[in-house]
Amino acid sequence: MSAAASSSSSPLVAGKAPNNDNDDGSDKPTTREKLPKLSDAELRIYNKTAMNMNAFHNHFREQWNTLYSACTAARRPPGYSIRQFINYGLEFCGGLGLHHSIEEEHIFPILAKRMPAFRKELELLTQHKQIHVGLDKLELYLEQCRTGERELRLEEMKEIMDSFGKVLWEHLDDEVRELGAEEMRKYWTPAEMRRIPL
Fold first, then answer.
1. In the Cβ-directed half-sphere of 148, how many Cα atoms lie within 13 Å?
2. I want to staple 181 with a disulfide (CB 3.0 to 4.6 A). Which of 10, 47, 73, 142 is the partner?
3. In a 3-state reduction of DSSP, which class is residue 171?
């Protein structure tokens, strides 16, 4: 049985969020007592959300690498016309934007009820805002290239990507780490994990 469901002193009694007297004032459960090792079945349950999120993130990493490699090499990937490359970039922008919208509207509000990292004022959502400053510029640039308002210049595209690449890659890793088994078990029971929409 997991730590979240093992005793009446669990931080999830009656479905309520933990109420700890942490030095930093957060709701994060204290780790004075080492949590018991998860069984293989529990580990799969608690890691499911992180694994699913990482699958989405790997898709965005792959798209980013294709676009950025072209910019650093100063040539499009083999087999891509200019139009195909621009559309690929727009697909990346639109997909990442939609992914963040779904997280912010449907997933983060559920997680934020118990997990401070997913609250609006904290790092993960702040990263979203920082990413979208650059992502919106990239989308506008590519859209102008698509319509012929400007010529695609890979060095210009690289400059835009450099403006938000570091925070994007940090975010892709940070979010998955916060959704990993060792974090999720502190806040959710296995039964509750099955109801988290991801």
1. 0
2. 47
3. helix
Other C-beta atoms within 10 Å of 131: how many? 20
Contact status, residue 93 vs residue 139, Cβ threshold 8 Å: yes
159 Cβ neighbours under 8 A, 6+ residues apart = none
> Tokens 């099955």 sit at which residue?
194
Q: Report the percentage of the chain scoring pLDDT > 70.
A: 83
Confidence of residue 110 (pLDDT cuts 50, 70, 90): very high
CA angle (65 as vertex; 134, 184 as ends), nearest 5: 75
CA-based nearest residue to 27, from 36, 16, 38: 16
Q: Are 123 and 174 contacting, i.e. CB atoms less than 8 angstroms apart?
A: yes
Single-letter amino acid code for the residue at 181: A
- Residue (of 136, 129, 110) closest to 49 by Cα position: 110
Token code pair at residue 110: 């559920």
Average pLDDT value over all residues in the chain:
85
Alpha carbon separation from 5 to 67, 181, 188 (Å, rounded): 45, 14, 8
10 phi and psi, to 5 degrees?
Answer: -60, 145
CA angle 24, 29, 31 (to 5 degrees): 95
Using the predicted structure, report yes or no on whether residue 32 has a pLDDT greater than 90: no
**Torsion angle, CA of 50/52/56/58, rounded to 10 degrees?**
70
Two structure tokens written together for 74: 């100063």
